Amino acid sequence: MNKLLLFAFSLIIGINAFGQDPVIMTINNNDITKSEFLQIYLKNNNDPKYDKASLDEYMELFKKFKLKVAEAEALGYDTIPKLVKELNGYQKQLALPYLVDSAKNESIIKEAYNRTKEEVRASHILIKVAPNAVPMDTLKAYNKIMALKKRIDGGEDFGDVAKGKGGSEDPSAASNKGDLGFFTAFQMVYPFEEKAYTTEVGDISAPFRTRFGYHILKVTEKRAARGTIETAHIMVAISKGAEVKDIEAAQAKIDEIYALLEKGENFEALVAKYSDDPSSSKKKGVLPAFGTGTTTRMVTEFEDAAFALKNDGDYSAPIRTNYGFHIVKRLKWTDVASFETMKPGLESKVAKDERSKTTQNSFVAKLKSEYNYKNKSKKSIKWFYENLDSTYYKGLFDPASLTKDKVMFEMDNKKFRQQAFAQFLKSNYRGARTENTQMMVDAQYKSWEKEAILDYEESKLADKYPAFKALITEYHDGILLYEIMSDKVWNKAMKDTTGLKTFYERNKSNYMWGDRIDADIYECYSKESADKAAQLAKLDTLKPVEIVQKINDNSELNIRHRNGKFDLNKTAYLKGKDFKKGLNNTFEDDGKFYVIVVKEKLVPSQKEFAEAKGAITSDYQNFLEKNWLAELNKKHAISVNEDELYSIGK
Asked: Which of 98, 155, 379, 545 is least enclosed, having the fewest CB within 10 Å?
């Protein structure tokens, strides 16, 4: 760890430990402490510096940030229902790691790691049912999945049942017979993953439920995890619904490229010349790493071709996917990392995953002990046994019918009462799956008690854990900042057409075309092709498309044509060159040869509003923000304790 960074963390710990956390900024009588500022500063600087210039620069950004948040609060943005809901959602997610039994959580993390070392291939049949479906719909779905299971147990093929009439309700089953391919930990919802990893190869599971509905699955194969692989590719694209002749031309092109590779030509050079993948062609064909434990997944044909390569630097023969033809090159293969290396990432994934909830029961038991829990529900729950009937399952229960508010349990000197439970019942009637009233009430009470205890603990997290408080503040400020910037700057600039055009008229000189040419450009991959293109262009009897057809007659790798208006200063291969009207001398740039036929030379000229609208909008946004910040500086009182600011790092 960087020495200064280590010092900074020590400073935060020291400040908190001794209770001395000086104020570094005050805005509208609200203090921001030195540790708060330092925590944000470190988070936003990979290479933090503590000299006066660096601290001043960041403090200016921080002041602007806090001024905007202060204005959002002054205008009541923090009470807008959709923003309150969004922040509450984030808070629930951020609280999850703090609301688990840490010992049990460790075993779940280890289980997840062990599963990343193995991949499972399974097929499934799905019968959809909503998580909050009424009992009748739930029973109907369950009976349907049981009937399909019975057919398979009777000897029918799993895939045929999945694909057939009345079979799986997963739309992909029509083409894949329910086959999901290989997957590993975290790539399926946890109940599905759990069933897949605990079912033997060749076996078919009993029906089970996830948030999508009821499933049965068949495990067809298990294998050691392949690890992670980094690849590059050359791609010849095929459009959806391409005709046979287009597919044949694409295959001929990829075969030609492969032949050049086999003759020793450079892979990266061929990518630059011929690959149709815009996202990778400028990056030597390099793709995001994929494989075990990554969120990136490739189509099966591509994955299989990549993992079949034995050594870094090896490349495949052409393969076909739904996107076109590819030649895949292996750049780097990495085996599944050690538990210690993967643990931080696994902890984060587990915290956001359903599996974390499995540790909450033991955590709730510990909280009960810590907070001196007392159960008072023996008498107070009876009212619900006696007053709830079949209308409850239709959502007709009214909490107002409960005229008293007796205590149901006590914890940490706080009383949890009947009215709160009644509101829970009203909101969760769809989750009730039995019409035995007492059993239903007992099940709902158990869920409510757990939720209430966890909510109570969540309410105390900011006081217990400074890191949690800092995260909530960060999300709170970020949400308000985005919303107020949208209203005051970003959206305002796009909607204020009058203001935008006025800004353009006042700043016209900033929006000029540079030197341009209106031209046909032939990009050739050999001097021979360029010479031929120049000869044909000189004749002035053929259209550009005809020139391309003649030169590409025996190969798809000879020439490409573009036409339009090109900026000489913004087009890399045209920069610094002088062109005349008509056919120009052939020149080479970055391994390619260019034949350029200029129709017209265009001198610098004023851009029309529509031609420069993107740049005008961006500049207008900056203009609005600058003026707005000037207003905020006058409206909100803000001061900085420079002595404390400059003491950081000393």
From this structure: 155
Q: What is the DSSP string of 567-621?
A: ETTTSGGGTT----SEE---EEETTEEEEEEEEEEE--EEPPTGGGHHHHHHHHH
**Per residue in 111-120, pLDDT tens?**
999 999 999 9
- Domain 512-606 bears CATH identifier 3.40.50: no
d(CA 641, CA 51): 16
Mean pLDDT confidence for 281-295: 84
For residues 184 and 190, the answer to whether their CB atoms sit within 8 Å is: no
Helix axes 466-485, 81-95, angle to 10 degrees: 150
pLDDT at residue 293 in the model: 60
User: For residue 229, which of 321, 296, 301, 183 has the smallest C-alpha distance?
Assistant: 296
Q: Which residues pair with 32 in a beta bridge?
A: 25
Instruction: Provide the CATH number for the domain formed by 118-224 in this structure.
Output: 3.10.50.40
Q: Are 522 and 595 in contact (CB under 8 A)?
A: yes
The alpha carbon of residue 560 and the mean position of all alpha carbons in its chain are separated, in whole angstroms, by: 36
Q: What is the pTM of this model?
A: 0.60
Q: Where are the domains of the chain?
A: 3-81, 118-224, 228-334, 371-464, 512-606
Task: Give pLDDT, residue 8.
Answer: 37
Task: For 27-78, write each residue's pLDDT tens digit.
Answer: 999 999 888 888 888 888 888 888 999 999 999 999 999 999 999 999 999 9
Task: Give the class (CATH, top level) of 228-334.
Answer: alpha beta
Q: What is the pLDDT of residues 117-148, one digit of tens each?
A: 999 999 999 999 988 777 788 899 999 999 99
Residue 286 burial (10 A CB sphere; 0-12, 13-18, 19+)? middle
Distance CA 133, CA 211 (A): 11
Q: What is the pLDDT of residue 434?
A: 63
> How far, in Å, CA of 290 to CA of 303, rounded?
8
Of all residues in the chain, what percent carry a pLDDT higher than 70?
A: 96
Nearest to 207 by CA among 286, 146, 156, 117: 146
The CB-side HSE value for 410 (13 A sphere, CA atoms) comes to: 6
Structural contact between residues 318 and 297, judged by C-beta atoms closer than 8 angstroms = no
* Element holding 19 (H helix, E strand): none
